[in-house]
Specification:
- There is one protein chain.
- A hairpin with a 3-residue loop joins strand 17 and strand 18.
- The chain folds into 3 domains: 168 residues, no CATH class; 108 residues, Lipocalin (Beta Barrel), CATH 2.40.128; 81 residues, Beta Barrel (Lipocalin), CATH 2.40.128.20.
- Helices cover 19% and strands 28% of the residues.
Length: 491
């Protein structure tokens, strides 16, 4: 009796070369249709070396062709090293005579199928989609979906609702964990077919961490003679972008437009190349290349989100500063200079919003940082903010500040079981009530604020006893009361 399983599909973007009559496998194959400038060149070569992919008998790899579901099963089994005994056929349209039979059976728990006229079909000859490969990868990698992750990704992907309902949690967690990404227009295109090149790249990234284990391929190391032969600025920019993608393992969809600028304070130009991600917690890469020599002058491993911008501003000490401004989640600003052809970190700071402008008219930009109290106001316009200008070299260019209602709302003691203290401040931060909660009940004492700074409140109760609260971070304060210090948090 056949075992009929309704399975959901795991899908990912990858490039693969698996055939019904596979050619011999070999590393660093010189496929006649695979140029070293191809965005997936390194991924394909690495997967050939690992015997996950193979070329065709005519010495082609056909990177732009779609990959079938049968071929995808073979790639996943080889890449993830899925083994085990193969029993009776699971699917009505996959026969033991088919070359992909063993692969489909070993990967069946990660693949999708559908019921047609009472038959369970895998449809091995159909092209695989982005949705399908993503689901399969998420399952093989044993990622754990959740409603929170699904909601987060749904808010970022413009066509998320076009993903099959059963596949949505797996696609969401795959995006969250950087197994796959969307397109620059924030679409995912779940029903689009994946090419062999895309498959190779996704598998390389998912199961081999995007690492190069084979001998260096042409043009993937430091800039070679090919760069010196380029004459147009456009061709040089394109060449260096390809170098970056090969070295750090990114696809075109994961890249931002390079920034052609001047960082040295001389007449030569540099090119800033960097990737983008969907999540502010993901790591990204940024490199600075010399347009004159083509050499990589420095690289940054940092956090990039879809809200990341990179710009260059003038500076009196270093002539020019590279500003990496990430506004995807909380704003983070990192500053770099190019000194003696080396990228050097010069400072960093954060806030809720940052604007960059020449506030004092000296010809150099300052940073205006706004810290918002998002605990009680979801509207930027309604929030009360504290502003200050970033200090550079010990000099404070401009300062204009207003009090911020940091303390408004409830604060509760952390890690206290026997006695819990709850402090409530009115939105004017000038009065409030302190509650003491224990097994015996709850008692409340009203107070007024006697002194206030941007980070501290001094309060006095009706019986003239005093206490003070000091801002620790965005969610915590410390309370000094009757000679004791309590750590408070905002629930």
């Amino acid at each position: 009796m056949k075992i009929r399983l309704k399975l959901q599909i795991v899908v990912l973007i990858v490039i693969v070369s698996v055939l019904s009559t596979p050619a011999a496998l070999y590393a660093n194959a010189n496929f006649k249709d695979l140029s070293s400038s191809n965005w997936a060149y390194t991924a394909i070569q690495e997967m050939v070396k690992e015997k996950v992919f193979s070329g065709y008998s005519d010495n082609t790899i056909r990177p732009n062709e779609t990959i079938t579901r049968g071929e995808l099963a073979a790639v996943l089994v080889k890449a993830a090293k899925l083994d085990g005994a193969v029993g009776l056929p699971t699917f009505d349209d996959v026969s033991p005579k088919d070359w992909y039979y063993d692969y489909v059976e070993r990967a069946m728990m990660y693949l999708s199928a559908r019921e047609v006229n009472g038959e369970i079909r895998y449809e091995p000859k159909k092209p695989a989609t982005r949705e399908e490969i993503t689901v399969a990868l998420a399952r093989i990698k044993d990622l754990t979906p959740s409603e929170d992750i699904t909601d987060q990704v749904r808010a970022k992907i413009t066509d998320f609702d076009t993903i099959s309902e059963d596949a949505q949690p797996f696609v969401a967690v795959a995006i969250k964990k950087s197994l796959i990404s969307g397109y620059p227009d924030l679409s995912f295109r779940p029903k689009a077919y994946v090419t062999r090149a895309e498959t190779a790249y996704l598998v390389w990234k998912a199961f081999f961490n995007g690492k190069v284990t084979s001998d260096p391929s042409p043009g993937t190391g430091s800039t070679d003679s090919a760069y010196s032969k380029l004459t147009s600025e456009k061709d040089k920019v394109s060449y260096l972008k390809q170098q970056f993608m090969k070295k750090y393992g990114y696809s075109s969809a994961e890249m931002e437009d390079p920034l052609l600028t001047e960082l040295n304070g001389d007449t030569s130009k540099e090119l800033v190349v960097y990737n983008s991600t969907f999540d502010a917690d993901e790591e990204g890469d940024l490199s600075v290349y010399s347009m004159k020599s083509g050499k990589e002058l420095g690289t940054i491993k940092t956090t990039f989100g879809r809200g990341t911008t990179v710009k260059v501003i003038g500076n009196p000490l270093y002539k020019k500063l590279l500003v990496v401004l990430d506004e995807y989640k909380d704003t983070q600003v990192t500053l770099f200079s190019l000194t003696n052809d080396k990228l050097v970190k010069r400072g960093e700071f954060g806030g809720d919003t940052v604007s960059i402008k020449d506030y004092d008219g000296d010809g150099y930009s300052e940073f205006k940082v706004s810290i918002m109290d998002d605990s009680y106001s979801s509207s930027l316009a309604d929030a009360v903010a504290q502003y200050y200008i970033y200090k550079w070299n010990g000099k404070e260019y401009v300062r204009s500040e207003r009090d911020i209602n940091k303390f408004a709302g409830y604060w509760i003691t952390e890690g206290t079981d026997e006695l819990q203290i709850k402090v409530y401040f009115n939105e004017d931060d000038r009065s409030g009530t302190m509650y003491f909660l224990s097994e015996d009940g709850e008692m409340g004492y009203e107070f007024n604020v006697t002194a206030k700074s941007a980070s501290t409140l001094d309060i006095q109760f009706e019986d003239k006893s005093k206490a003070s609260m000091k801002w620790v971070d965005k969610k915590h304060t410390s309370l000094k009361l009757d000679g004791m210090t309590y750590r408070m948090e905002k629930p």
